[in-house]
Structures are given as C-alpha cells and as structure tokens.
Design brief:
By secondary structure, the chain is of the alpha/beta class. The chain has helices spanning 11-23, 53-63, 77-82, 84-104, 141-160, 182-194, 216-229, 246-254, 283-289, 297-309; strands at residues 2-6, 27-32, 44-47, 67-70, 110-116, 163-169, 172-173, 201-204, 210-212, 214-215, 235-238, 243-245, 262-265. It has a 7-stranded parallel beta sheet, with helices on both faces. Helix 2 (53-63) packs across helix 4 (84-104) and helix 6 (182-194) packs parallel to helix 8 (246-254). The termini are far apart. The structure holds ligand A2R and guanosine-5'-diphosphate-alpha-D-mannose. Ligand A2R binds at residues 7, 9-13, 33, 35-36, 48-51, 71-75, 90, 94, 114, 116, 169.
Length: 312
C-alpha cells in the first residue's frame, strides 16, 4: 500500500510516518512546505503548498497513492485569532484545492481529512460527551474553518462518490509538539525553570476550560485504522472520551517536578472566546474499527516533560 501524507512535516506527521512505515508496512510519501525539513529516512519527500492547486494535481498524478492523509493546516486556535486570513486560506481554500484535485483524478484513493473537536464549539448542557451528529457551533476562527472543511468533504464525497472520510481529532499531545499548545508549553516552562533558565513562575492562560486529551501515538493508530475501515462521507470523533480541566493538567505536570513553582495568569494567553468544555463520544470509531486509546495521560505528560528536559 502507498500512503501520501499532505502536511507531513508537522507534529502529527512524524508519528504518522513512523506508524505507517513501521507498523503497517506502507510505502510512504510526504509533502512539506518548501521552508520545512523532514529527517525521516526511507520516505519520498515533496515540496507542496496546497494553495497552488496545479502542484497538487501534478503530485497526485506522480505519486498515485492508495491512501491520502490530509494533515496540512494552520493548526493553532490562538494563531487563528491573530491571523484569520491565513487560517481561512490554508484550512478552507487549501482543503477545497485537495478535494477539487481528487475529483479530477483517473483513480480513486481513500482520503482522510483531519478536522477538530473544536468544530463542536459551544456545546449545550446534556450534549457531552459529544457525538458526530451533534450540531456544530464553532466558537473561534480555526474551529469554523475545520467545520467548513468537514462540510466540503461530505459534499464532495456524496456528489462525486469520492472515498473521503472526515475525522474530528480532539486535543492530541506528546513529545515534539510545538509549545504553542498547552501541554508542550507548560512542560517547556517547567524544564526551563528546572534548568535555571527561567524564574520559577509558570505563565498560564485559561485554566478552567475542559478539554479531551489523547496521546498522538494513539491518534495516528486511529488514522491508520480509519483509512482502511472508515465509510466514505462519514465523520469520526477521535479522542479519549474524557475531558479534564486545564488546571488539572497543570497539577499533573507539576507533580513531576520538585521545583517550587508559582502560577501566574498571562493576559496575552487568554483568548477572546474559549468554550468551557469539549469532550468526545468515541463510540462510532470504536464500533467501526475496534480502536481505543491505550496510552495513559500521566505517561504522555511524563514523556513530554522528559522531552523538554532534553531540549532546554
Ligand atoms: O506552517 P508550517 O510551515 O509549519 O507547515 C505546516 C503545514 N502547512 C502547509 N502545508 C502545505 N501547504 C500549506 N499552505 C500549508 N500551511 C501549513 O501543515 C505543518 O507542517 C503542517 C501542519 O502541522 P502542525 O501545524 O504541526 O499540525 P499537527 O499538530 O501536525 O496537526 C495535524 C492536523 C492539522 O490539520 C490540525 O489542524 C489537526 O491535525 O489537529
Ligand atoms: N496554548 C495554551 N497555552 N493554551 C492554554 C494555556 C497556555 O498557556 N493556558 C490555558 N490554555 C488553554 C486554552 O485556552 C485552551 O482552552 C486549552 O488550554 C487547550 O489549548 P491548546 O493546547 O492551544 O489547544 P486547542 O484546544 O486550542 O487546539 C488543539 O486541539 C484541537 C482539538 O481540540 C490543537 O491541537 C488543534 O489543532 C486541535 O484541532
């Protein structure tokens, strides 16, 4: 089997490359932005900006993958508030470029579009854990772009009989994630404090939000199963099924250090809107594939902290 990962130089890409090559024995091709580097051996690497549709057409004709994982995105909620245009360009126009290219092909790959648990947004009382058929009420620009991508995926799958499946991935974490995201951010700060490179003050944003965290290695296993067993036009939640307050995430991280750290809110880290809770109902993916997350949150946090201790 030949897999193509679009946007393979990011956080998830590295884990997905490893899973597809080592666990599933796939031949793997990946795309990266011209400015990025990928260190994986034994994969074909192509430069691709998904805003240039003609380049996607040429790439798909050349690689002819059986499976396509569309990971490329502006992936940060916080950046989406600061740069809505870029987020909309990459996440909406870029995804439509991919779908338009699929429509024109003379072969039919199976495709996974990576969306987000953020698409559900303002979840009402009684709606958690949230299932795929729940109304989506995006609460930020990133979430709205991913909800659009989901709708376009469904429209193209139905209208042109494309084998396109959509996932809504909830928060995924692990070593090597950019410190734009909460667990990597907090772990990096602890490592810097321990190394004497930062005063013992942890700068935080909104600690009351509850989010659903899964280890990135579990997430890529779900992608590997869904690309084979998912049903075209369907959406699947991927998460742990349990939301945890960011305050409790912070406590779990601080349990792993002997440094005496005080916690301070940084107003710059607060968002114009931060929905109170996002928690996944994962029944559908479990029934479709048998997938369940396996790696405990405490282990992921320990390994992420150790990763940052090795970096600072
Ligand atoms: O922005 P960069 O230079 O870091 O590159 C990112 C890449 N990307 C693009 N690729 C092709 N054409 C574009 N116009 C374009 N803009 C950005 O997509 C990066 O290498 C990759 C996304 O990786 P990360 O930001 O590390 O996201 P992560 O955590 O791997 O998430 C994968 C997917 C995304 O669709 C998220 O929205 C979703 O899972 O949660
Ligand atoms: N980044 C960050 N930094 N977030 C903080 C901080 C901080 O210092 N303090 C509190 N938070 C809160 C945020 O306000 C949010 O409620 C929560 O921690 C998680 O924030 P992020 O880790 O930045 O992730 P996200 O939920 O906005 O988005 C991630 O998960 C989505 C799926 O739910 C990303 O991985 C998206 O790409 C993904 O789609």
């Amino acid at each position: 089997m030949k897999s193509l990962i679009i946007g393979g130089a990011g956080f998830v890409g590295a884990y997905l490359i490893h899973h597809l090559k080592e666990d599933l024995g796939h031949e793997v091709a990946v795309t990266k932005m011209p400015t990025e580097r990928i260190s994986s051996e034994g994969v074909e690497i192509f430069d691709l900006n998904i805003l240039v549709q003609e380049d996607i057409v040429q790439l798909f004709r050349k690689v002819r993958p059986d499976y396509i994982f569309h990971l490329a995105a502006q992936s940060s909620v916080s950046v989406s508030w600061k740069n809505p245009q870029l987020t909309i360009d990459v996440n909406v126009k870029g995804s439509v470029n991919v779908l338009e290219t699929l429509r024109q092909l003379d072969y039919k790959p199976r495709v996974l579009l990576i969306g987000s648990g953020e698409e559900y947004g303002h979840i009402c009382d009684g709606e958690t854990p949230v299932g795929e058929d729940n109304v989506t009420r995006p609460g930020n620009i990133y979430a709205a772009t991913k909800a659009c991508q989901n709708m376009f995926g469904k429209i193209y799958a139905d209208a042109y009989q494309l084998d396109v499946m959509m996932v809504r991935a909830f928060n995924h974490i692990g070593p090597n994630q950019a410190p734009l995201f909460v667990v990597a951010d907090f772990c990096k700060q602890v490592a810097e404090i321990e190394a004497g490179k930062k005063e013992a003050v942890m700068k935080v944003g909104n600690l009351s939000a509850k989010r659903d965290f899964t280890d990135v290695r579990d997430v890529v296993r779900a992608y590997g199963q869904l690309i084979q067993q998912g049903k075209p036009g369907e959406t699947y939640n991927i998460g742990s099924g349990h939301a945890i307050a960011i305050e409790d995430i912070l406590k779990l991280i601080l349990k792993n250090t002997t440094s005496d750290i005080t916690v301070e809110t940084d107003p710059q880290k607060l968002r114009p809107v931060d929905v109170p809770i996002i928690e996944a109902d994962i029944t559908k993916v479990t029934e479709a594939t048998g997938w369940m997350p396996q790696i405990p949150l405490e282990q992921t946090i320990r390994e992420t902290l150790d990763y940052w201790r090795g970096c600072v």
